[in-house]
Amino acid sequence: GQSLEQPSEVTAVEGAIVQINCTYQTSGFYGLSWYQQHDGGAPTFLSYNALDGLEETGRFSSFLSRSDSYGYLLLQELQMKDSASYFCAQVGGGNKLTFGTGTQLKVEL
Amino acid sequence: NAGVTQTPKFRVLKTGQSMTLLCAQDMNHEYMYWYRQDPGMGLRLIHYSVGEGTTAKGEVPDGYNVSRLKKQNFLLGLESAAPSQTSVYFCASSPPGQDYEQYFGPGTRLTVT
Questions:
Q1: Is there a smaller number of Cβ atoms within 10 Å at the N or the C end of chain A?
Q2: Residue B110 and residue B21: Cα distance in Å, rounded?
Q3: Which residues pair with B87 in a beta bridge?
Q4: What pLDDT digit, counting tens, does each position of A51-107 carry?
Q5: Interchain CB contact of B74 with A (< 8 Å)
Q6: How far apart are CA B87 and CA B67, in angstroms?
Q7: Separation of alpha carbons B7 and A20, rounded Å
Q8: pLDDT tens digits, B13-52
Q9: How many CA atoms within 13 Å lie on the side-chain side of A60?
Q10: Helix (H, G, I), strand (E, B) or coil at A69
Q11: Residue A22 and residue A102: Cα distance in Å, rounded?
């Protein structure tokens, strides 16, 4: 089946910029979504890339390179409330998402 | 709008018992999904539905059954619970053609002893 790879943990300081990478398998690829999940909470949608390039939504941006089978989520002006897990998810055929195992982001003072 | 709701929030079962988890959405979404989330393994798709009366298997369907008798409801059943089914279960929904943007319920934390 499809598998996505992301780092398990990333640590950064408040106010900094952090990039969370995701590599995916090319078979049946339509696009890449990103979700945020706080401890004990539900995943919430952040961003989606169907085409190569950068999508910007406030402090968060997401990038996709189909030729490299690679994407990333960029978080700017980090705040303590950004401490959460971040998942990339591959949009494939059959109306389904396949999620990566998640990256736990810790924001420190 | 309540969005996506799930009942119950918590449940403890003994091995071999059965139960049904209920998911309801008030956004008139066609697509609905059931996932399980285990530590370090992300979200894995159990079953999904692209419309009332239709269901399909996801990545990890064994030991679960589902039904979508009404558009707004998606039920997940465990006929004979096993300790391996201890997990957090999330329901989600999305409009047709927007499966990349799913709306999740708050989750059900299930423990099977």
A1: C
A2: 10
A3: B110
A4: 999 999 999 999 999 999 999 999 999 999 999 999 999 998 777 899 999 999 999
A5: no
A6: 20
A7: 33
A8: 999 999 999 999 999 999 999 999 998 778 999 999 999 9
A9: 17
A10: coil
A11: 9
Q: What are phi and psi of A82, to 5 degrees?
A: -80, -10
The two structure tokens encoding residue B110:
């299930």
**Block residue for tokens 């736990």:** A104
**Which of A23, A20, A28 shows the shortest CA–CA distance to A60?**
A20
Long-range contacts of A66-69 (CB under 8 A, 24+ apart): A66/A26, A66/A29, A69/A23, A69/A24, A69/A25, A69/A26, A69/A29
Token pair, residue A98, equals: 């396949």
The continuous run of DSSP H or E covering B79 comes out as: none
Residue of A95, A99, A103, A104 for testing the chain B interface, max B β-carbons within 10 Å: A95
Binding-site residues on chain A for chain B (CB distance < 8 A)? 1, 8, 30-31, 33, 41-45, 48, 50, 87, 89, 91, 94-102
Compute the Cα dihedral for A25, A61, A101, B23 and give only its sign: negative
Contact B45 A97 (CB under 8 A): yes
Nearest to A38 by CA among B34, B110, B106, B9: B106
Mark yes or no for CB contact A91/B59 under 8 Å.
no
Q: Which amino acid is at B48?
A: Y
**Contact check, Cβ <8 Å, A45/B103:** yes
Q: How far apart are CA B44 and CA A22, in angstroms?
A: 17
